[in-house]
Amino acid sequence: MAVEDRLSKGSRHPDMDRFYDARSEIITGPVADWATDFSHLDPEWLADPYPIMDSLRQECPIAHTERFGGAWLPTLYEDIAAIAYDTERFSSRSVTVSSFRPPRDAAPSGGTPPITSDPPFHHDARKLLLPAFTKTAIARLEPGTRAFCHSLIDGFEGRDVVDAARDYAQEIPSRVIGDMLGLSPEDGGQFREFVRAITREDTYQARDERIKRAGKMFVYVLAAVNDHIEHPREDLITYLLNAEFDGHKLEPKHITGTIALLLTAGVRTTYSSIGVSLWHLAGNPQDRERLVAEPGLLPTAIEEFLRAYGPVTMARLVKEDMHWRGVDMKADDWVLLPFPAANRDPAQFDRAGEVIIDREVNRHAAFGLGIHRCLGSHLARMELRVALEVWLERIPAFTLQDPSAVTWVGNQARGPQTLPLRIR
Amino acid sequence: MKVQIDSGRCQGHGRCYEIAPGLFGEDEEGYGKVLGDGLVPSGQEREVGLVAANCPERAVTVAEGA
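Above: the input entities. Below: the structure tokens describing the complete assembly.
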């Protein structure tokens, strides 16, 4: 089959719309009790989830909720790790908790491979992407990333207060992944519009909105793919079009799903990490001053920011009814994998609740554990390091303009949405 | 002192070649590998201990002797 025939509007997989039958009535409203009615969408969780995680870890280490058609929230490192490693009993066919579940036959590929894929499909789908995301491959993107960070700070000229989330952190990852994929920020504003759509607060709980957004994303990605078919170039989309899987060119839905994944997975996650690190440094002058004086400490400090504030919570679906570590899980129950809770488990870390920027022993799980280790972790670390290096070099002194003006978003990738900083 | 990477556990986090680039490297898919024969040069025991203590997958093991 010619490449051109593989990709047309008719190639859109029907699963994209079949998605999401609600299993039960949709429950909203404030959380009544965190152990039996938790919601990771609750404003209290969003504002500061750590005290809630800490008290659950002590009192009810695997919390439950009837929301989302049934979901579990483990908070011990050892439970979170065990689930991440157990691909036999927990499926990745969707990793985003909502009231809607993709159909069972969406496995083993899932909508956006390889993050939504289970073994054995997962292995080869991931393998074909790994070479593009090694530390060595990513290092080639560092000069361009650094120049882009400088250009953002050049844009602060004449301003005393900037929004470090909107005007800095949020700009960086979309630009870098756009360059990798071969999507131009100058393509008539489409790329910008697309990024704005994926960087605003999630509306995943609204079924119609979710399907509408998935459709828009598909149309955008398909146009980009068709442009690459007509004008092949040295980038990831061209690579995916030519890649072979199991002796064949990739299925159209595999190509578009993977592009959608690469476009979205590294954007909110990475800018949340950049933003929360700047938030910490703005509020903790002793740490900021130390990093300005000792830039060589930054890689160690970044690992601590990832441990203490790592943004990402993943999810799994229970494959079959089972009794698991004291609770009765039902088939198709969600299980959240709150790596931020694992990273603050005192059984795993000394002084787990403190941010210690020269912490040397730091076996954190911010990028997950097991076969789904974040594919873009080397990219994320490079962006985070360069963004902080450039900021601290250009703006060594900065403070929170108004701590109460900081807002937090991100259901499964939490970080500051607005971060007004006084920079002179 | 000898260091090894359990390739069945390594997932390519890269903490080993970040912390001790003289002793560890990455393969073409980003998985960690021990450079050379794995014998830890004298004076680098602490560094190797840190690598083992930071590997998220507990894939790096250090054996005394050899």
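Note for the figure: The longest strand of chain A covers residues 313-318.
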